[in-house]
Amino acid sequence: MTGDRQQDTNTRAITSRRRVLAAAALAPMLTAAGPAAARALPTGMPGPGHGKRVKPVPTGLADWAGVAKALGRAGDMLRATTYHTAFPRRDLLVVSDGVVVTPGLALGTHVAFVRYADGSTMLMGDVVVTENELQRATDAWQAHGIEQTALHKHLLSQTPDIWWTHVHAHGHDAVALARGLRAGFDRTGTPPALPPGPRTPIDLDIAGIEAALGTKGVSDGEVYKCVFLRRETIADGHLILPPGLGSTSAFTFQPLGGGRAALAGDCAMLAGEVQNTLKALRRGGIKLVELHNHHLAEDPRLFFTHFWAVGDAVELARALRPAVEATNVVPSL
């Protein structure tokens, strides 16, 4: 397949990064953690150090060993600042618009931990839950001081009913944050981790998609994904977010055979970009799913639109290009 050799060269180094970027839109709200759990500040209240922005600091896998143990699986490092862990919902058989949705397309839970110069840790996550799991997981998170900052859909009508909720916490005990997060996961059917399997070539015109979007992407053998980053520096209150965390536009293609694909994704926009982006998507025949915020305290304020389409993959990529050009983003690769 055209472009495979170059794609395979990039894949090993960036696939884990793409997974967290695909699910980026994580939830900023300032909180503080006690010794056993995250203790939330009231919404909108400035946290310690308000007025002076704090930068993330480099960390390594060894720094997050306790978090990995609490979550029950290993994660990976992104850009030397973000510890990411994926929880694909392989247990779910979800159908939307006649398409059996794979975990890589829209059913992946992703969480990220970031250490800051003041010694604190921020947790952000985008969590997939069934409608029957939602209230139980919410109660568990609330009992452990884990905030929810968004609750919405990523897909049009689906069976069974699925919800996506954004979680957030901030404190000085990263392991306590992880335990609180795990308490909610334990109220869901999220399956145990599996060892990584061999990647297989993906049945899509990768070169055509890349030419249409003007960027490289990555394939994990299940889906093909392209991601764009906001050019601005985004802060969650006084905490500066690492590039690619909570401020990305992500486009994911699931092959359906014969060059066709199911497309799911979202665009990260400033308020002044929203209408032009929505119009661009609709002119391309792409279905709008949601328009909402993922965060509570970010600066500048971001809006996200989720969308869906089924058709020729290259034509879908061409339809996306005007929406990309309507926003202040840059390719992540």
Automatic annotation (TrEMBL):
Cleavable signal peptide: 1-38
Matches recorded under InterPro entries: TAT_signal, Uncharacterised_LppY/LpqO
Keywords of the record: Signal
KW Signal (keyword) present: yes
Keyword Iron included in the entry's annotation: no
Pfam families hit by this protein: DUF1529 (PF07485)
Domain of life: Bacteria
Transmembrane intervals: none
Protein name as annotated: Peptidase M23
Organism the protein comes from: Streptomyces atratus
Upper taxonomic lineage: Bacteria, Bacillati, Actinomycetota, Actinomycetes, Kitasatosporales
